[in-house]
Amino acid sequence: MRGNLYIISAPSGSGKTTLLQHLLRNLKDLKFSISHTTRSPRQGERDGVDLARVVKDQWLDAAKLRPVVVAEFDDSALMYAFGEDGRGFFPAPTVFEEEFRRRYNVRVVGRSKAVRQQFYAISVDQRLHHPAVMAIVHAAREDLFR
Question: Do the strands 35-37 and 51-53 form a parallel or antiparallel pair, or are they unpaired?
């Protein structure tokens, strides 16, 4: 499979879904990838259409994991700060591993190919400049578009 990877990243409630709906209506070759989540569905979201809902406890049972859950986060920055303070574990994209090790003074304790995070990017620039976006696109091209 060859193609372009677009990453749309913004805070909750900023209009990502509205933008995606507009793009999907107007760009016929654009495909939408359904993401998996354990969060509660938002108003108007349809399981299997807008996202694939996975019940956290079922996923943990299937993975034979029995963590003591002391907090759940909708804000990834807060989750990383929690982990940095030595208060627990958190999932992080492999593409950011080196940066997270330096920034949050954390270490990798395990890996799971079953956990995925979805990124979208749209830019008016024809060339990529932001290091995080460049890293994501490079990793996607290496893993997805061989």
Answer: parallel
Residue 127, pLDDT score: 74
Q: What is the rounded CA–CA span in Å between residue 17 and residue 23?
A: 10
- Asked whether the beta carbons of 112 and 106 are under 8 A apart, the reply is no
Per-domain residue ranges of the chain = 34-66
Q: What is the largest CA-CA distance in the chain?
A: 47
Q: What is the CA radius of gyration of the chain?
A: 17
Could you identify the residue written with the tokens 């290091």?
A: 131
Q: Are 63 and 112 in contact (CB under 8 A)?
A: yes
Q: What is the pTM of this model?
A: 0.40
Report yes or no: 19 and 121 within 8 Å, Cβ to Cβ. Answer: no
